[in-house]
């Protein structure tokens, strides 16, 4: 009798879990660089300063240092 209801509820929970997971991604503030590991934010001032600040060193790569930092138009 309640089988269908329960199944529907489980589907909803799975959907909610996936939405919740997507919101766990860290969004960096303006003026911060998002490391390529998708987990770490560092101040843009730390880019290309010769010291790796991202766990994956993505703040010191040629790609990061040669191209202008993409900024969000206000
Ligand atoms: Ca650095």
Biggest sheet strand order reads 1-2
CATH fold name of one domain = Low-density Lipoprotein Receptor
Radius of gyration from CA coordinates: 20 Å
Order of helices and strands: HEEH
Q: β content, as a range?
A: 5-15%
Please give the CATH class of one domain: Few Secondary Structures
**Quick one: CATH superfamily of one domain?**
Low-density Lipoprotein Receptor
Q: Please report the distance between the alpha carbons of the first and last residues.
A: 55 Å
Mean of residue pLDDT?
79
Number of strands: 2
CATH architecture of one domain: Irregular
Bound molecules: calcium ion
Shape: elongated
Structural category: mainly alpha
Measured as a percent range, the helix fraction is 25-40%
Low-confidence runs of at least 5 consecutive residues: none
The biggest sheet, with number of strands, parallel, antiparallel or mixed sense and barrel status, is: 2 strands, antiparallel
Number of helices: 2
Pfam family, one: Ldl_recept_a
Keywords: Disulfide bond
InterPro entries: LDL_receptor-like_sf, LDLR_class-A_CS, LDrepeatLR_classA_rpt
Quick recap of the structure?
With 74 residues, the protein is mainly α.
